[in-house]
Amino acid sequence: MLRVAELDWGLWLTTMAPLIFSAGPGNIMVAASGARSGLRGSLPFIIGLDTTYLLLALAFGLGLGRVLTEYPSVALTLHALGVSYIFFLAFRFLVQRPTKIAAPSDGFSVLNGVVVQLTNTKGMIMLMVMFGEFAGPKIGGITPVVVMSSVLVCLNFLAHLIWGAFGEAMNAAFIKHAFLFRIQNYIFAIMLCAVGVWLAIR
Hints:
- By secondary structure, the protein is mostly helical.
- The chain has helices at residues 9-21, 25-61, 64-70, 72-95, 110-118, 121-134, 143-174, 178-201.
- The protein is globular and about 55 Å long.
- The model has no long low-confidence stretch (mean pLDDT 78).
């Protein structure tokens, strides 16, 4: 039976931190949200992402991953929905006009974050790897699951704040110039489409 004190936190951190802070699909979408509605306006989206991820992590730690392994059609459906939704969000960038950042009602919402995370099969695979490598069949009780899930989501939240601030800084530099603002939106739309294509072919 695995106890929290027996977890190799050094190895866990060196394995998970690069995955969490690198330019993956979730972080790119948060940066895009930061560019669209600022860091503060992106908080609902970030909360939707990370709250959902915490619930998913708890569920995976308690056995949900085995369900997706046994029923691959469910995972495939979620995957298709996620890819389609990312392309939809990219389209929203293409049609956005230059506006000041203070328009939270036009930004990505809590519901957007929930939908994106529920259909993010890469994030689910990451959870299966985490629990498989650092807990495995010897995991005992709910405490190690709760602790690992909580630490993971705290790091996720920090990464999302950093990427959201980066997106806001880009917007602040470009908002005064309509041409540069359009270029910025095209860049984020292309990045989101690239994320969608990358997820689709995995």
